[in-house]
Amino acid sequence: MSLYSFSDRLRLLLRLAYEPSGGLNAQIWSYLGAACAMFEADQAILYQQALGGCQYFSHIAGARREALQVGEGALDAELHALMCLKNPKMLVLLPDITGNLPGLAYTPESAADLQALVAPLPATSAVLMLIRRRAGSVKEAPLHAQNDRAGQTGQLTAQDSEVLALLAEGVARMVQLNASPDKILRAQEGFAVAGIRSLPEYVELASLPAVFGVPGRVMDSLSRRVGQSSLSIDDIASELSMSKRTLQRRLQQAEINFAMLRDQVRFHYAIGYLVDQNLSVDQISNALDFSDRTSFTNAFKRWTGLSPSTFRKLFRDYT
To answer: Locate the HTH araC/xylS-type domain: which residues (predicted)?
Structure first.
């Protein structure tokens, strides 16, 4: 199948969407491989923001499925800027990014012959990046590629942009659908724990899961606001430029509710405040935006079976 006409590209995307193969890595490999074939790219990478950094999936053109690279790294300013773009772009490869590309060792000299096709997904804090040779470089793009994709002008056609956006949405959706919600879903049972656990077990229980899409944006917003601003759903929705109702619906589609996410963030920070910092229960309840210390105490008992003061005595004062 030719992959240079718009109809053929859409036909392949439809097949990828309706006939997923294997598990998560196999599905991502299929999307990234299709992206390389459609745009004659050397490499396709999906970067997706996670709490504390970013996760990436990297495919080298022609590589076997087992060669898909999956890893985590820092979310630097350049990648964050690409995630914040509004529409797909064709860019000369940014020098600050070349050293961080997984799998291929680009030098500043060789990077001058490369360009990046980037398709951002601001709603999921992600970007699909395709790396390919620029027209006129040592490895020239074929004539049909120059004509069909406006390679000489440094601009993407409207159809290119649409295909890139669909590719990015497809692979990001694969990640979201396959993300394990186990850590979050335990909130439905109130984090009920049997007996007293060790501190490392409580820390693991309170860890922030790597969630993506709207749930990930909500957790990021909550984490930024802890100790600074309100953690109410109205204020979070406003920060994310959504109505409260829209936010609730988007979370429901991911089988998560706002209270679950907020509880997880509050539990995470409460552990640190109690054990690592010398904050009073009143200070902690204020930082976590509880109405009063009683509300915080009741929530903490629900999460751990212990009161905040008892937890502090066990794991800070007596260890």
So the answer is: 216-314
